[in-house]
Amino acid sequence: MPHSNHPKTFFYLPSTVERAERSLLCSPFNIALLSVMRQQSVPLGAIAEDRGVKYGYTKRPLSELACDNALNWLIQVGILRREVDGQGITDSFRLTPLGYQLVEKYQGKNWRSPSWGDRIYNLVIRWLRLPF
For the structural domain made of 14-121, what CATH number should be given? Predict the structure, then answer.
């Protein structure tokens, strides 16, 4: 089943977009990973360990567990989803419509550096898993 390169545009509350963007900025991932996810799903094995750094997906090598946890957090805030095939859920990840919107915003740019406030806020909501 082919995927559209131009997913339907959804409108999100500003607080939803801000939370997702903050989570992305505080994540260990680079814009390169999400840019690739615009075109195709990316398996965990290509992101974890030294491969993530080699492909420019991560800022530093991440264990598979740390990588999976960070990717799952981006699922919870609405940026990513797990890829599904005929057998069920896979170990690959794709962008959601919100993820596409954020990638469009940063296309051709680097992430801005998260402030200490961004980091603390993200850490607290992630640690406590506060409902949004």
Answer: 1.10.10.10
